[in-house]
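Weekly modeling sync, notes
Attendees: S.R. (lead), two postdocs, one rotation student

Agenda item 3: backlog of single-chain predictions. S.R. asked that every request posted to the team notebook include the full sequence so nobody has to chase files. The rotation student volunteered to paste the first one in as an example of the format we agreed on. Action items at the bottom.

Example entry:
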Amino acid sequence: MENKTCAICKESKPLDDFYQCDNKFSSYCNPCRKSYKKNWDRVHGKKRRAYYNRNREYKLKRLHETETHKQCSTCDEIKPKKCFRKMGGKPIRHCSVCYAARCKEYRERKKKYMMAKGRKG
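Predicted structure, as returned to the notebook:
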């Protein structure tokens, strides 16, 4: 039987002591891998929970979307997908009404900026 050296404990152990996936063996022996994973979960667990809680509200909000309807991210109304403009073959986040309002607001901001710069807008 072949042996392999663990990257953590530096001990030479039989291949049966290493995790195998797709005919490749892990660099860590099973006991070291288990302790590494436990430590990683302890250190990164808070980050994972915070990420989950941050995105939970967003996922619940999008739960009501179907194949025919979509929720506008500006007005939060659920509207038919035909009310959303397409960009790259996919509907964008804002309904046509909100998208038009955002474009108008952008043009006004840009016009004020150009006037302040002394350019013709």
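Discussion: group reviewed the output briefly. The helical segments are 30-61, 96-117.
Action items: rotation student to repeat for the remaining queue; S.R. to check formatting next week.
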